[in-house]
Design goal:
Shape: globular
Order of helices and strands: EEEHEEEEHEEE
Number of helices: 2
Strand order of the largest sheet: 4-5-6-7-10-9-8
Number of domains: 1
Largest sheet: 7 strands, antiparallel
Structural class: alpha+beta
Helix content: 10-25%
Strand content: 35-45%
Number of strands: 10
Amino acid sequence: MKLSLNATTGTLHLAASSSISSATSAAELATLFAPAPVEHSAAHGGYTHYFIRAVPLDEGQGSFRLIYFHQRLDSISFAFYPDGQAHLSWNDWSEQQEQRLAAEYDAWLTKQVGSRRQFAWGTVWAEYDPRSGGSSIGMRYAL
């Protein structure tokens, strides 16, 4: 799969024929991400989280977290790693490496959508989260 993000629509293209948009239902996730398994956590306060790990991508492999609020896609968080780096142990982790990865994700976003981060359809960002120790790209769709 080759990831790309459409700045006009907020559609995240996974491959030539599959994509995620604010209209994507949770029921579609198993088909979109096959053969990777889709895991989910029970709804709390109307929110349900779906996790998809080890998704094969042209960039290596990726992981995705999709959050639905009352069955409507609210946000997506995703990360991609070169082959062989997705499952490094905590012994191989460093804050500098994660901050560098966040900068790479920000550069990817700039290549995809330019320097803007807010759009009519929602907001995008790249960040390093010191609480989780990980970096990711995030998207939140406007209500």
